[in-house]
Design a protein that fits this description.
Number of strands: 10
Shape: globular
Bound molecules: adenosine-5'-diphosphate, magnesium ion
Strand order of the largest sheet: 6-7-8-3-9-10
CATH topology of the largest domain: Rossmann fold
Number of domains: 2
CATH architecture of the largest domain: 3-Layer(aba) Sandwich
CATH class of the largest domain: Alpha Beta
Order of helices and strands: EEEHEEHEHHHEHEHEEHH
Structural class: alpha/beta
Distance between the termini: 28 Å
């Protein structure tokens, strides 16, 4: 099984606080892999290290076997790694269609001008229609993203990453702040993307039902370190994990 993303001994300190401490992680191509852990465990910092937004003090990151430890986010995006944020990063004044269009053009290095070659325009229209269908946003295509429900805005954000050509998607709490219905719609979407588009998913998630519904592997972080790793059902039985979570969430 090919590794899509590998971290070896990643360490990041903020002053005297070791936010991420010798973390190693292997994400298999085409898998759905969850990172869980109590608040402050270092999950978001780990994602920032993996996606080039922060530089590690020690350790290495490999993307498709190529070392990318010191490459900036925009280079990693071009190599197929995109991330979403806990706060949405869409253009709220533009419509869903416009947001996706801009990302599709950007990914192909095109300029945002109307005199595109007709062949290119046809390709764009086709991919756009396909994306709107997968995302379930056909009816919202002409609405400004800022006017959509929170859950739909987050779906647009996932759509932007896809438009940019993501092969690996890092999602930081993709269902945070969502209603139950929005949560399950998002899980369904991620499942579809995972299966139909063979997208590799690495996601941070608090909701254990979502973790169990989506993840094939789970890595547990605690105080910046990897506390456990395994299949979801193994993690749910793990006593060290249960102790770390005591008073935080109920596992299983
Ligand atoms: N930019 C920063 N400067 C200083 N401390 C930070 C910074 N980012 C995160 N931290 C600290 O690092 C630890 C891990 O944070 P974070 O990665 O956000 O955890 P998680 O996402 O698991 O809740 C926390 O104690 C947090 O306060
Ligand atoms: Mg976080």
């Amino acid at each position: 099984m090919r590794k899509a993303l590998v971290a070896q001994g990643l360490t990041k300190a903020f002053g005297r606080l070791l936010a991420v401490n010798r973390v190693s992680l292997e994400v298999v191509e085409g898998s759905a892999h969850a990172v869980i852990g109590p608040n402050g465990a270092g999950k978001s910092t780990l994602f920032a290290l993996l996606s080039g937004f922060l530089r590690p003090d020690q350790g290495r990151v490999y993307l498709w076997d190529r070392e990318v430890t010191h490459l900036p986010p925009e280079v990693l995006v071009r190599m197929g790694l995109s991330r979403t944020f806990q706060v949405s990063q869409v253009f709220p004044g533009l419509t869903v269609r416009e947001n996706l269009w801009i990302a599709l053009e950007a990914a192909r290095g095109w300029s945002p001008f109307p005199w595109l070659k007709s062949k290119d325009r046809a390709w764009l229209e086709e991919r756009l229609a396909q994306l709107l269908e997968i995302l379930g946003l056909e009816d919202e295509a002409h609405r400004p993203v800022g006017e959509l429900a929170h859950g739909d805005q987050r779906v647009v954000e996932i759509g932007l990453a896809l438009s940019l050509g993501a092969r690996i998607l890092l999602l930081d709490e993709p269902t945070a702040g969502m209603s139950e219905e929005e949560t399950w719609r998002t899980v369904e979407l991620l499942r579809t993307l995972h299966r139909q588009e063979n997208l590799t998913l690495l996601f941070i998630e608090h909701d254990m039902e979502v973790v169990f519904g989506l993840a094939e592997r789970v890595t547990v972080l605690h105080l910046g370190e990897v506390l456990a790793e395994g299949k979801p059902e193994e993690i749910a039985q793990d006593e060290a994990v249960q102790a770390a979570y005591l008073g935080e969430v109920v596992l299983g």
